[in-house]
Structure to design on (181 residues):
């Protein structure tokens, strides 16, 4: 069991790192008060923010995203493909081929990065898109489900309820009532 002093040290360390990041952002925002300094000092503050973010806890993952042909970049491409083709029946082998990975490697790395499988990701994209269509275009659940790639209205309704906690009509009515309140 760690001592209260060790916990205090951890908290102090986290706060110091956060303050260093926020200081650079604050300096950048304060430049809005001195427009003549923006041209010279803003690029320096922005560069410091980039540095602090890249050197922070998520830095390795962010750096990997820009490395050509890294697993993170391949998964980003897979995500992009699924977003573009969310309403289509996309086979996982097709996604894996498109990003030059085996299906098992795609599953493994996709889940590491997104915390879900590619099919779960596509299903969530479809359900969120259907929700958006029902809210913004006022179409019914069956039509929304069909437009996002569901062939069965009952399957769409079951999966919608599982994700959002209520059947489509009831959940949309609840969201509208909250927005209007």
């Amino acid at each position: 069991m760690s001592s209260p002093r060790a916990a205090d040290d951890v908290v102090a360390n986290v706060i110091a790192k956060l303050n260093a990041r926020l200081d650079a952002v604050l300096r950048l925002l304060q430049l809005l008060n001195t427009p003549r300094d923006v041209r010279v000092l803003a690029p320096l503050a922005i560069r410091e923010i980039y540095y602090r973010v890249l050197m922070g806890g998520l830095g390795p993952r962010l750096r990997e995203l820009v490395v050509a042909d890294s697993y993170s970049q391949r998964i980003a491409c897979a995500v992009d493909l699924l977003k573009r083709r969310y309403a289509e029946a996309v086979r996982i082998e097709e996604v894996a081929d498109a990003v030059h990975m085996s299906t098992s490697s795609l599953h493994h790395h996709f889940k590491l990065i997104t915390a879900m499988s590619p099919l779960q990701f596509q299903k969530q994209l479809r359900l969120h898109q259907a929700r958006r269509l029902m809210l913004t275009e006022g179409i019914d659940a069956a039509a929304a489900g069909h437009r996002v790639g569901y062939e069965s209205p009952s399957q769409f309704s079951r999966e919608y309820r599982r994700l959002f906690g209520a059947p489509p009509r009831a959940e949309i009515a609840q969201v509208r009532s909250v927005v209007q309140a």
